[in-house]
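Human: Not sure, check this?
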Amino acid sequence: MTTSLVDIDASPTLEHLLDIRIAFDPVQIFETPVGTRFTYVVRHGRCEGPRIAGDILPGGGDWILFGTDRVARLDVRGTLRTDDGAYVHITNTGRVHMGPEAAARYAAGELIRHDEMVARSSPLFDTDDERYRWINAVHTVAINQVSLSEVHYRVFAVR
């Protein structure tokens, strides 16, 4: 008889929350003792969902560490200004792994689609604006598409 460590009879469901598209300034790529760093600075972006929409403001960024295991570790920070003036802080962590063909196309500047690699992340949101406080409690998973100049996220709330 197998005993589970956790007695939970549940499976999460996903509900589309929003989509994000971000364009970057030219990427900075350099070696460090712990791996290759890719630094992307947000030029502009847009967030659209059924309950929230607005612009991703310039100046946020995506700090990626690419390890010897060929896995990119995401560290993203940004600010969303909703169409009605609220400010929402966004953080995002995740992992990206591409095969050699997709990696070569990425290095050439192509957009790599979600079904051509493993690219998943978990954006989280923080705001004190009463109209959007509901988003503070939402845990997410996102499916990503990436290039050297832009990123697209399809973000789902985990229920």
Q: What stands out?
A: The chain has one domain: 14-158. Residues 14-158 form a domain with the Porin fold (CATH 2.40.160.20). The chain has a mean pLDDT of 96.
